[in-house]
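To make this tangible, this section ends with a sequence with its structure tokens:
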Amino acid sequence: METVACPDCDLLQHLPELPPGGKARCPRCGNTLATEPTDPLDRPLALALAAAIVFIVANTAPLMGLSAVGRHASTTIVGGVYEMWLQGQEVTAVIVAFCAVIAPASYILFMLTVLLAVRRPPAPHWVGEMLRWGSHMQPWSMSEVMLLGILVALTKIAELATVDPGIGMYGVGALVVLLAAIMVTFHPREVWKRIEWADGDGPTR
């Protein structure tokens, strides 16, 4: 039985074993201390697989097409980064490449590796390190910021040219939703409980 302190009122208490879908609340202030998901591994795994497919689409399909004075042009995320690099905006290109491509790809890859490795416990000890790397990459996955920037740019460009949203833009929007869904449905405690440690015990946290 795990002992925890309520983050709101600091009351020390024991957490009982929770049934699937159950919640533990503080008896003093009513704050939720822990939840037990109904599907802690399969649902995040399905979402991560979907995110991997959508990520490929978002980075290979054109984001948008521009038509002006009889000329048409389109680009992808990687193509935009390459153009920024050629125009001398190396720092901006590196930041965009990391936050829009490298960080989301790394987060999805780490999550897939972790969720696949823990399906048959005990999971190898390196899963814990992969989980830590995934948590480090997650804050840098800023696809939603890039999508907001694209929408702002579309509003301004629409006055000068005809803008046609591409499949890549819809892919970025779907990726934002899927990444958020993974973060909501994934519970690291379930992974930590399934890891095999050198002393034969699981983590105490």
About this structure: The chain has a mean pLDDT of 80. Strands lie at 2-5, 12-15, 23-25, 32-35, 64-68, 71-75, 162-165. The CA atoms of residues 144 and 163 lie 20 Å apart. The radius of gyration is 22 Å.
